[in-house]
Amino acid sequence: MTASRCQAQPITANRVAGMPRESDSHGAGIATRTTRRAQADLDAGRLADAAGTLRLVVPMPDWDDYLSLALDEIRMYGADSLQVLRRLRALLLGLAEMLGDAPRAASVGRYLRHLDAIIERSPFDAEDRQSARQEDAQGLGLTRGRGGA
């Protein structure tokens, strides 16, 4: 039996929200793997014989599963960190931009709205909540793109 798979065109994390290369930080490795999954054929669990007849279906994670696996624990344990929230926003906005109108973009949008709701319910004051909503691939609160100096 042969697996029928599409080869996704690899993309680097640099193309998603200016994230650094995987070797630059641990968080960038998540960005790299998540962006690759965003473009991958996730229907790889369908195996066919040489004639193309489907012979085996192996349950595989879908896009929502991968998004959850990549980000949930970071989001949960980093909910009180402005840096973590900024980096997650940068990753999610970059994924949304890369996916455009693709069906997987809706999941990214839902995740981003969930992240925004967490920021709203956080114990941060108004200034920190605003800061947490500013995407920043480095998480440092740099003023690029906000008109600051």
Can you characterise this structure?
This protein is mainly alpha-helical and 149 residues long. The protein has one domain. It is 48% helix and 6% strand. The protein contains five helices and three strands. It has helices at 26-39, 63-77, 82-99, 104-121, 126-132; strands spanning 2-3, 46-48, 54-57. A three-stranded antiparallel β-sheet has the order 1-2-3, with no helix packed on it. Strand 2 (46-48) and strand 3 form a beta hairpin. Helix 1 (26-39) packs parallel to helix 3 (82-99). The protein starts with a strand and ends in a 17-residue tail after the last helix.
What is the distance, rounded to the nearest whole angstrom, between the alpha carbons of the first and last residues? 60 Å
Rg for CA atoms = 18 Å
* Secondary-structure element order, N to C: EHEEHHHH
What structural category arises from helix and sheet content? mainly alpha
Question: Residue share in helices?
Answer: 40-55%
Instruction: Give the strand tally.
Output: 3
Strand order of the largest sheet: 1-2-3
Main sheet overview = 3 strands, antiparallel
Q: What fraction strand?
A: 5-15%
* Residue-averaged pLDDT: 77
Shape: elongated
Provide the low-confidence segments as ranges.
1-26
Number of helices: 5
Count of individual domains: 1
